[in-house]
Amino acid sequence: DMFKRPAITKVFRPVVGKGAVYLDTDKDGKDARTSEISVVGKDSFEGKEGFWMQIYFTDSKGKAFVGKSLITPGDYQFHRMIIQPPGQQAMEMPMKMNAARKEKIEENAAEWHSVGTESITVPAGTFSCEHWRNDKTHAEIWTSDKVTPFGMVKEISGNGNTQVLSKILDNATDRITGPVKQFDMQQMMQEMQQQHQQHPQ
Fold first, then answer.
1. Half-sphere exposure (CA, 13 Å, Cβ side) for 14?
2. What is d(CA 34, CA 162) in angstroms, rounded to the nearest whole number?
3. Cis peptide leading into residue 73 (ω within 30°)
């Protein structure tokens, strides 16, 4: 079956209002930051059921960034994307996902294979997990069906950075505030030029 979904995509189980908070650290155990992934709404796309998945994190300067994507779990495709950079109006980004990029996502997902089950203890508790490995990047992920939306309890990336589950969310809310405008490349370039003229380096 050419269109068989890669096994690891089965861990995506969206439930509105549920999510997870992760603690991210680099390979030296420094630069600890938190990020939050949650499901904040339901929508349909071309007749298919879709879920809004939100990612919220603060950068090293403490500025909060939020973005959300509409995903249809049936085919595991991303259809819409809204981002809100710190202190700015939310905008919807163009989402014409080209075939090459889509193929890359599918290829990446297909590189993961299960290597058994293990019990893992993280700040959020102890979970019985399925352990996945990516032989190409040498990354590892542990997933549990008690965690939504991606099931991730722990990840060690190929470069040694780790992400561990620090908290499960049961009342996640949409953090995008105010009206959403369509992304306008021309307008963005003009704004950047104006800022540069006001604050030349």
1. 22
2. 12
3. no
